[in-house]
Fold this sequence. Notes:
The protein has no helices and seven strands. It is mainly β. It has a single domain, classed as Immunoglobulin-like, CATH 2.60.40.
Amino acid sequence: MPADGAVLDAAPSVIAMTFDQPMRLTLIRLVTSDGAEVELTRTDGMAPLTEFEAAPAEMGPGAYTIEWRGLASDGHPMDGSFSFRIVE
Ligand SMILES: [Cu+2]
């Protein structure tokens, strides 16, 4: 969350992901279309979770991508990305 491809009229207060099985997120980045990184405050302590949430720093209008990598409970590495836009 936000859903991939979402067009929002305000910045999201949280970036959230739900996993079917506990996932230890080893990396999560929120980047603008210019490749600038937006700070994310995460409180998971890299513990395996099915519900992950992080609070983004202030975000203006533009396109954003979330890139993540994680380790599933069986040690299988996984990764993914999703994107959304904020419009005024
Ligand atoms: Cu696996």
